[in-house]
User: Which sequence fits this backbone?
């Protein structure tokens, strides 16, 4: 999709937007949110007209706008329009910059499909969208910034959609390298011998049953002078069968997406680098696959983490936390970040609690948490805080090791487990098991594939300075 903010060519269709109760509205259209009426032109030299409803003026905010634009684009796609002019919109009380940003986000994030493996449905209509009426001087910068972020998210969606036979740790690392080179951030991929040298037995144990060997992907973007480094960690299971604690048939179907956290971390790095943000960030992905053979790790095994703490593995399907334990410790201890955020498709129970609406958020630092939530209000992504209460620590007590990898109160105990590896470093943990891909879809703009949730919020958080 190409955007133009001036010099409009001959549009095929002109979109007029109205609010509910607008006096100009006549009978067949009420201006309700997402309402669309097409008035076809019978003169081939004149454009068609689309009336588009924005709902009640007082209620409109950027989140509704983002979703409204998604609805509009779906209609445009259905009608196969190529050249679209969106006429000047009455912005009401909303900020012009933020309005434009939300509009373009809604349009670009909706303009996504994964057709790679379809033999005869590859047709893509390249659309030209002319947006009239914005007079701010930095409008092209806004377009550029949002395009870079949307492209990074759509790239992440591609990786998440890619099946396990074609996306395994080595391939994930290869794609990360391509994205790093194209976006302008540093990357290093460590193979097994180096990972062993670092003492990451918790991470390595998950890979014991597969020929697809693990990788530790270490990324860095430093354009922030002497600012502190923020750390990002993403769960990167390219396939999670559960291992000996094998999943059900139903549970096995979607386990190619267990690397969503990794894909989102790569997307955040790409967005920050492409937009040349003045920040310092490091990111780590410990990527592997959890499958089953005679060498696989088994329930009851005891492993030593890089930090030195021992873990009794009572459930081989709780593998994400084993990889994250070493990744979190490594990014804090070796990469010396001052704060860290991890995102992981960690527990199915997150979805039993919130469905796909809210991502559970955990933090050991109120100020960090509050800053995050302030930004999330703007980006329209939904999070809900969960307790990291010390009394839950006993839930992961083991009889034979320093801790075990399961316990009741699944989403919380998973976080208590991770907390053991971050100590006092300000830390946020996001359990995206049910929100990385949403069932049912929550945001109108993410109806195809993964949602991208966390990317825009973390990008803004880092860019605005944490
Ligand atoms: N990757 C899964 C979590 C998951 C489940 C993500 C469904 C997306 C959809 C994770 O590794 C896992 O299996 N977690 C277990 C934890 C349990 C063994 C404590 C789970 O959710 O059952
Ligand atoms: Zn698992
Ligand atoms: Zn998993």
Assistant:
């Amino acid at each position: 999709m190409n955007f133009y903010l001036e010099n409009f060519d001959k549009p095929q269709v002109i979109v007029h937007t109205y609010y509910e109760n607008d006096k100009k509205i006549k009978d067949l259209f009420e201006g309700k949110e997402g309402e669309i009426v097409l008035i076809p032109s019978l003169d081939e030299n004149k454009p068609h007209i689309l009336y588009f409803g924005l709902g009640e003026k007082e209620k409109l905010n950027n989140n509704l706008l983002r979703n409204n634009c998604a609805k509009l684009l779906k209609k445009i796609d259905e009608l196969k329009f190529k050249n679209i002019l969106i006429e000047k919109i009455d912005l009401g009380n909303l900020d012009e910059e933020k309005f434009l940003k939300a509009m373009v986000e809604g349009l670009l994030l909706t303009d996504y499909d994964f057709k790679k493996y379809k033999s005869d449905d590859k047709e893509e209509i390249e659309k030209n969208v002319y947006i009239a009426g914005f007079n701010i001087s930095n409008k092209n910068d806004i377009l550029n910034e949002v395009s870079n972020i949307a492209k990074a998210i759509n790239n992440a969606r591609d990786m998440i959609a890619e099946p396990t036979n074609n996306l395994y740790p080595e391939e994930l690392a290869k794609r990360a390298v391509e994205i790093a080179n194209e976006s302008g951030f540093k990357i290093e991929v460590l193979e097994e011998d180096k990972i062993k040298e670092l003492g990451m037995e918790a991470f390595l144990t998950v890979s014991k049953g597969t020929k697809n060997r693990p990788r530790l992907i270490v990324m860095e973007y430093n354009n922030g002078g002497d600012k502190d480094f923020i750390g990002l960690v993403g769960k990167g299971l390219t396939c999670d069968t559960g291992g000996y604690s094998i999943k059900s048939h139903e549970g096995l179907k979607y386990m190619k997406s267990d690397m969503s956290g990794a894909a989102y971390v790569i997307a955040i790095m790409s967005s920050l680098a492409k937009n040349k943000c003045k920040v310092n960030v490091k990111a780590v992905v410990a990527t592997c696959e959890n499958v089953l053979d005679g060498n696989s790790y088994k329930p009851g095994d005891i492993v030593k983490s890089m930090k030195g703490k021992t873990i009794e593995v009572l459930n081989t399907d709780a593998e994400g936390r084993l990889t994250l334990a070493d990744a979190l410790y490594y990014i804090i201890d070796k990469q010396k970040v001052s704060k860290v955020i991890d995102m992981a498709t960690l527990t199915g129970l997150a979805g039993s609690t919130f469905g796909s609406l809210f991502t559970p958020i955990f933090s050991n630092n109120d100020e960090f948490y509050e800053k995050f939530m302030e930004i999330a209000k703007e980006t329209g992504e939904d999070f809900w805080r969960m307790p990291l209460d010390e009394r839950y620590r006993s839930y992961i007590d083991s009889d034979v090791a320093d801790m075990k990898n399961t316990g009741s109160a699944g989403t919380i105990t998973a976080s208590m487990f991770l907390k053991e590896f971050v100590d006092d470093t300000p830390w946020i943990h996001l359990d995206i098991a049910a929100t990385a891909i949403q069932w049912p879809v929550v945001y109108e703009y993410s109806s195809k594939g993964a949602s991208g949730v966390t990317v825009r919020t973390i990008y803004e958080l880092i860019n605005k300075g944490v």
